[in-house]
Design a protein that fits this description.
2 domains; 16% strand; eight-stranded mixed beta sheet; two-stranded antiparallel sheet; disordered N terminus; 14 strands; globular
């Protein structure tokens, strides 16, 4: 039988399985996540030669490679797939990327649901924080090569025009901050992908994400994730001051979910509106536009907390302190910082600060599958820590990535019992020593012009607000 006719048989060829124990353990670990059954209802074209499970395995191995080129990574992935599973779904780099561009929209949601189910299965110790399944939400940018196609797709419309992109000069900082040299040259705007991520705060793992051009709105991305996603009962979204707005908060409430969001000087809150029974901390968010459109005031609780040395204001729709206490509010917002570390892991540790694809569709595919590949490695490590009865925060993503790549290189070997895949992942933990000085103090000067969210504007409801309330009640009756 020709190799083309064998394409797609990645999990059935027992006579070609690797002899090394390392390879067997890797194959079992991958199959624990990527199972053929999750794609049973996916309809393929009649002339498709590969099977979905084979394509997914090849894509995951492709992004696991640390090769400096995409084609070099594919060559490694093809060799690994042949050794681990006995065959390769697709035999060319162009074929792989073409298939991923066409089929990622169908494959990724199925694989994401599978990963979320595995998280719940193995993560009972960290699945919830108290009552809540807590998801942090934040956004970041990932750079792409500066090609004409990428500039047109990812830069703001007025930046990428033909072969020339507008140039942006670095602004001088205010007094007390760094100043760029007067002789420094202006730089063209870089094409970047905006990435908005939901991140599981208990297990320290991704949950879902949305991508778009560099000028995308992270709040719009969040609303799309709310519309598309299926979230467990008592899901609570935790976000910084960039995720404010009546429509966004009401969408969370209409979905039956909760939120804990920092607010700053760009938010005006009302007191003493008389819409509900009021006690300490009860405020209302009711912009004039919402009031005129006969939309209800949002009843919230305002928490003034001190996180580290930073005082901040947080609002939530959870009004009962028995369900969300002050201590839990502080803990949740402190844990939210982990999504920033997830971005750093993706960019620095996993090597995706700048993607390598020169066309927009392939750049988006490269980013999506890089996120999935990193998620799978982190899930392997978290699973092993939880089986030891230890919390997920002890897992080191950097060490887990190194373990997987070393095991792939040693796939034909048989490691001793103390160096099996499980044993090595269980040892992939962060250091526990206490630093005398923080890294931030070593590497970042204390600039005087650091941005601050400020405090929300809190006013008592006036006659105009009370009149609007009466109009709303009459309209709702």
């Amino acid at each position: 039988m020709s190799r083309r006719k064998d394409a797609g048989k990645t999990d059935r060829s027992n006579d070609q399985q690797p002899q090394g124990v390392n390879g067997t353990m890797l194959r079992q670990a991958i199959s624990w996540v990527v199972d053929a059954g999750i794609f049973d209802h996916l309809k393929l074209h009649g002339n498709t030669k590969w099977k979905p499970v084979g394509l997914v395995v090849l894509a995951v191995l492709w992004v696991w490679s640390d090769s400096s080129t995409l084609t070099g990574a594919f060559s490694e992935a093809r060799r690994w797939a042949m050794d681990l599973f006995g065959s390769v779904a697709i035999n060319s780099y162009q074929g792989l990327t073409g298939a991923l561009v066409t089929w990622s929209a169908q494959l990724i949601p199925l694989l994401r649901e599978r990963l979320q189910a595995r998280m719940q299965q193995c993560g009972q110790g960290g699945w919830r924080i108290g009552l809540w399944l807590a998801l942090a939400v934040d956004g970041s940018r990932v750079s792409t090569p500066r090609t004409v196609a990428n500039e047109k797709a990812f830069c703001a419309p007025h930046y990428g025009q033909g072969n020339t992109a507008k140039y942006r000069k670095k602004k001088n900082k205010k007094k007390g901050g760094r100043r760029c040299r007067a002789s420094s040259k202006a730089e063209p705007v870089k094409p970047q992908i905006w990435l908005t991520m939901l991140w599981h705060m208990g297990l320290k793992l991704p949950w879902s994400w949305k991508t778009g051009p560099s000028h995308s709105s992270e709040r719009d991305h969040f609303r799309q994730l709310l519309e598309e996603g299926k979230f467990p009962e008592n899901t609570l979204f935790c976000a910084d001051a960039g995720f404010t707005g009546y429509d966004l908060w009401k969408a969370i409430l209409d979905g039956g979910h909760s939120f804990l969001i920092r607010v700053g000087a760009n938010v005006t809150l009302l007191r003493r509106l008389g819409y509900v029974r009021e006690y300490d901390g009860i405020v209302y968010f009711w912009p004039s536009k919402a009031a005129k459109n006969h939309q209800p005031p949002l009843v919230l609780r305002l928490w003034q907390v001190q996180v580290g040395r930073c005082p901040m204001s947080l609002v939530t729709n959870v009004l009962d302190e028995n369900l969300l206490s002050l201590e839990q509010v502080k803990e949740l917002y402190q844990r939210r910082w982990g999504v920033e570390l997830q971005f750093r892991t993706l960019k620095q540790t996993f090597g995706r600060r700048k993607l390598r694809s020169k066309t927009p569709d392939k750049a988006l595919v490269e980013l999506d599958w890089s996120l999935l590949g990193l998620w799978i490695i982190q899930l392997f490590a978290v699973k092993e820590r939880l089986e030891l009865g230890e919390p997920p925060p002890q897992s080191s993503a950097a060490m887990a990535i190194r373990v997987i790549r070393e095991m792939l290189d040693q796939r034909h070997e048989s490691s001793p019992e103390q160096e099996t895949l499980s044993a090595r992942l269980r040892e992939a933990t962060v250091d526990c020593y206490q630093r005398k000085r923080s890294k931030r103090a070593r590497y970042q000067p204390n600039y005087k012009d650091k941005p601050a969210a400020g405090s929300p504007i809190i006013i008592d409801a006036g006659d105009a607000h009370l009149a609007e309330l009466q109009k709303y009640l009459a309209h709702a009756a």
